[in-house]
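Lecture notes, continued. The same structure-token format from the folding unit now serves as the input rather than the output. Read the line below as a description of shape only.
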């Protein structure tokens, strides 16, 4: 078996498996057979191939994880966009509620003005009640100073006049005839005055009842207007709070959407990220990219 120096081997040199290859500066004290050398090279090549295959597998897993992360991120963005759309819808509804509250407040103000007008009318009717009462007294007994000649043109005066005429009629037959005529006229006037007095009294009572009804309606209307105004102000405040909360939620959602930032390291093939709100990791059992809120 011949000794062959490595530096002496030509590219076309053929060595038998039993030949030795020196591995210590040309001596043969440390050597390896050609057969074992070839086996060692084959083993190294196999290991390199296996390592390359594993690297390819790892690269494929990383690629798949990156694609899954992209899909998950897109799903998060789509979900967030839906939330943003809903928030905008809620903000629009809140604004509509605020506008409705303002309209209700305007209606309440108009109703309050109507109630005030009715109250003024009721006050005017109440003032007329006293006039009706004075008119009734004027036709009954006089002495109110509201009607010219009322002291001699009232039920009491005609009643006394009739009585006087009746006494005078007993003293003189001729005077009795005249007194009878006067008495008849006085009785007619007295009946008319009494009727007027009764009508005035009824009118006064009716006016009083109407006035009280107007006053009650005016008070109810005023209270309803005040309640409507309070409700409108409360609705407006609630709508403004809802709009502000919707805007805050929208701001938070946009911050969460913009938070994660992904990059690929082309030297290592790794997916890199930076985020203050999320933590990502690869599940070594499934190969899935998983995340959680920090």
């Amino acid at each position: 078996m011949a000794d062959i120096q490595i530096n002496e081997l030509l590219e076309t040199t053929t060595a038998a498996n039993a030949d030795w290859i020196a591995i210590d500066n040309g001596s043969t004290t440390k050597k390896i057979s050609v057969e074992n050398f070839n086996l060692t090279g084959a083993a190294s090549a196999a290991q390199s191939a296996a390592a390359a295959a594993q690297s390819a597998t790892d690269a494929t897993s990383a690629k798949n994880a990156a694609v899954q992360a992209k899909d998950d991120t897109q799903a998060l963005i789509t979900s967030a966009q839906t939330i943003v759309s809903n928030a905008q819808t809620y903000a629009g509804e809140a604004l509509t509620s605020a506008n409705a509250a303002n309209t209700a407040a305007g209606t309440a103000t108009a109703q309050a003005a109507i109630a005030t007008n009715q109250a003024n009318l009721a006050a005017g009717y109440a003032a007329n009640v006293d006039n009706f009462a004075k008119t009734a007294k004027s036709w009954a007994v006089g002495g109110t100073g509201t009607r010219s000649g009322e002291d001699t043109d009232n039920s009491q005066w005609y009643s006394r006049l009739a009585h006087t005429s009746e006494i005078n009629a007993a003293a003189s037959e001729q005077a009795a005839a005249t007194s009878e005529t006067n008495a008849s006229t006085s009785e007619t006037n007295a009946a008319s005055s009494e009727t007027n007095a009764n009508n005035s009294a009824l009118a006064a009572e009716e006016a009083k009842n109407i006035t009280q009804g107007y006053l009650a309606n005016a008070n109810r209307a005023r209270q309803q207007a005040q309640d409507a105004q309070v409700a409108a102000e409360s609705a407006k405040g609630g709508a403004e709070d809802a709009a502000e909360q919707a805007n805050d939620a929208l701001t938070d959602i946009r911050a969460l959407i913009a938070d994660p930032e992904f990059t690929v390291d082309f030297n290592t093939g790794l997916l890199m990220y930076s985020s203050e709100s999320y933590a990502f990791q690869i599940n070594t059992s499934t190969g899935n990219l998983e995340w959680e809120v920090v």
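Point for the exam: The radius of gyration is 58 Å.
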